[in-house]
Amino acid sequence: MKCNRHGFTLIELLVVIAIIAILASILFPVFAQAREKARSTQCLSNTRQMGNALNMYLQDYDETFHKGAGLRTPAQHGFGSHTALDGWENWPWFYGPYVKNINIFDCPSSPDQLQNLTGSNWGNDGNYGYNYSGLTRDQGTPPRVLAEIDRPADVFVFFDSGDPQVRAGTNNFPGLLEELDLNLNCDANQWNSGYTKEGALRHQTRCNITYADGHAKSAAWSTLLTRNGVNQPPWMIAWSDCPGGVCPAPVVGAGRCFDPNRLP
Questions:
Q1: CA atoms of 258 and 128, how far apart (whole Å)
Q2: What pLDDT score was predicted for residue 168?
Q3: Which residues of the chain have pLDDT under 50?
Q4: pTM of the full structure
């Protein structure tokens, strides 16, 4: 007796391949979004731990935000040694004694890592930034005390950023964008080719933020770029482009300083 064997025809194979390709095109973006969501969750955990470190630091220093320039510190707590520590670029060193793991300063979505932090200088690192102009403030000006902030739950302290601090140039809107690596068409330092994951809004167009009361949450670009007025939450910065102390709403979009449609 003969046994008839039936195989797939060419048409059937092509149909199966086409179905697999369609499923892959549908599922791969879903997997990528799931991976990014996991990175964002880890980053949010990092910012929450920064909030815990902030609270402990403030308790030890009379509720005064850190300040300093030209300070020396040995290698400890996972940080590298430093001979001229400053309060704007090198702010993680001030919180070294209060963190359990130096890796909380490494955002998993950022292309930059911790080489500068374990070396001698946080430098221009695309991980997290600090609200220097609002809380530590320039030399010759005393740092803020927590008690002088009416709404600490609304004030930014740490956040996803392309630079280690918001020291916003002449304290205007283009300067803020520049420090966050979100400046497209203003001033000299721009990201004309578009944004990258070094910028502040790297988590599916959102940013993780630690607030002055220690809590942390994810925020949209409209929250991050809010300026309610001079020396007002969320930035507490003496803005130079806010006539009468009232800041205008940001003008965004194609050809502007900031275009949310081009976020990664």
A1: 20
A2: 62
A3: none
A4: 0.86
Lookup: tokens for 82: 């430093």
Q: Tell me, what amino acid is at 55? A: N
Q: Which pairs count as long-range contacts for 8-16, CB under 8 Å and 24+ apart, including other chains?
A: none
Tell me: cis bond preceding 143? Omega within 30 of 0 counts: no
Task: Give the whole-angstrom CA distance, residue 78 versus residue 162.
Answer: 22
What six digits make up the tokens of 142?
Answer: 């005393």
C-alpha span between 206 and 190 (Å, rounded)? 20
DSSP 111-176: S--SHHHHTT---S-SSEEE-IIIII-STTSPPPBGGG-S-GGG-EEEEE-SSSB---TTTSHHHH
132 vs 241: CA distance, rounded Å: 18
Asked if residue 155 lies in contact with residue 119, where contact means CB atoms within 8 angstroms, the answer is no
Rounded Cα gap, residues 13 and 60, in angstroms? 70
Kindly report, residue by residue over 45-95, the tens digit of the pLDDT: 999 999 999 999 999 999 999 999 999 999 999 999 999 999 998 999 999
